Amino acid sequence: MISYARQTQEQQPEAPPPPVEEHIAPAPRVSVQAFCETVETAAAVQSAGEDRRLGKAHLKIQMGGMAAAIEAYRSAPTPNVIVLESDGRSDLLTGLDQLATVCDAGTRVVVIGRINDVMLYRELVRRGVSDYVLAPVGAIDVVRSICNLFSAPEAKAVGRIIAVVGAKGGVGASTISHNVAWAIARDLAMDAVVADLDLAFGTAGLDYNQDPPQGIADAVFSPDRVDTAFIDRLLSKCTDHLSLLAAPATLDRVYDFGTDAFDAVFDTLRATMPCIVLDIPHQWSGWTKRALIGADDILIVAAPDLANLRNTKNLFDLLKAARPNDRPPLYCLNQVGIPKRPEIAASEFAKAIESQPVVSIPFEPQIFGAAANNGQMIAEISANHKSIEMFLQIAQRLTGRSETKKQKSSLLSPLIEKLRGK
């Protein structure tokens, strides 16, 4: 019998691009088989299978629609998800009744059709169809429909992964990522974790004034032990809303990793934290490329010089090609205005990248150096510093959230604070 999952998405005649703030949780390792009637739908499903959010799913596409599906499963087990394209109404309902006789328990069915009728939708729901998508469909419609089958409304929201990387070494990407994470936790009131992926030379522990005995290395080198409880033991609490998965920052071993070395860590963090900020070191390897492509949002930190411009352009081109159904990466300029240094203007940078920087952070070595040496964030050193507003602006763009309004203080607030302190 076909199982029922309460996911619906009303479609427009033309599939629009996803809104900036849309967040689609990745699908787990499931098998998906699509039976299409038109080459356009088959192409959309094929493109969806290349999307990062279906990276773990095993997708197979066949032509022939409902008739081919019924014939295929007379002698073979059904996959986790069946995607069916159908042009008709009576043939669709009759075909679903026949399919139910050969469909394994637990299999979910997504129907792609061209009839926009609530009565038809009710009949499909009654027969246990999980989702009905109105054709023509784009790749993102297929991705959304399949992924939403495994994101139950009552389930805890899957966390958003934000990757921060420098276009060149020494541009301050780690400093930016740590201060942006601080803004996400403090100003947006989101529970967040910073994962320092530079295991040999990471600075997150220093910047947050933390020296935990365990951290991300314990998880990466013990993938069989990684689960929610294990990751929780490795987290170091920085504030009420911010935690740290610290790098050991030691050279007693070589940190050579396979492409999927961090997958178990990221998956576990997604299940427990609303926001995960990855501090990715400036290197190019299989796992760093995978972490960037697999992130929900990306921030590239660049200095205003030619090498940074070239590298930012290369990163933009690669990530846009690898993530066609996601919004493009964001970038910011950092260390702007170093005395006597020739710089590329922000307008010229934007013209070459074909995108405006989120912010341009000025070069202020005194306050940034003091914060680094004291193990503090810029907001702790100077509450009114202009860069704090820039970090918040980046945080809002990356998360799609606005600033949490602070409660107005009353005449009794000082007295209440004194009582709390006792």
From TrEMBL:
It comes from the Bacteria. Residues 1-13 have a biased composition (Low complexity). InterPro entries: AAA_dom (IPR025669), P-loop_NTPase (IPR027417), ParA/MinD_ATPase (IPR050625). Residues 1-21 are annotated as: Disordered. Keywords: ATP-binding, Nucleotide-binding. The keyword Nucleotide-binding applies. SUPFAM superfamilies: P-loop containing nucleoside triphosphate hydrolases. The keyword ATP-binding applies. GO terms for cellular component: cytoplasmic side of plasma membrane; cytosol. GO terms for biological process: negative regulation of cell division. Residues 160-320 form the AAA domain. GO terms for molecular function: ATP binding; ATP hydrolysis activity. This is CtpF protein. The gene is ctpF.
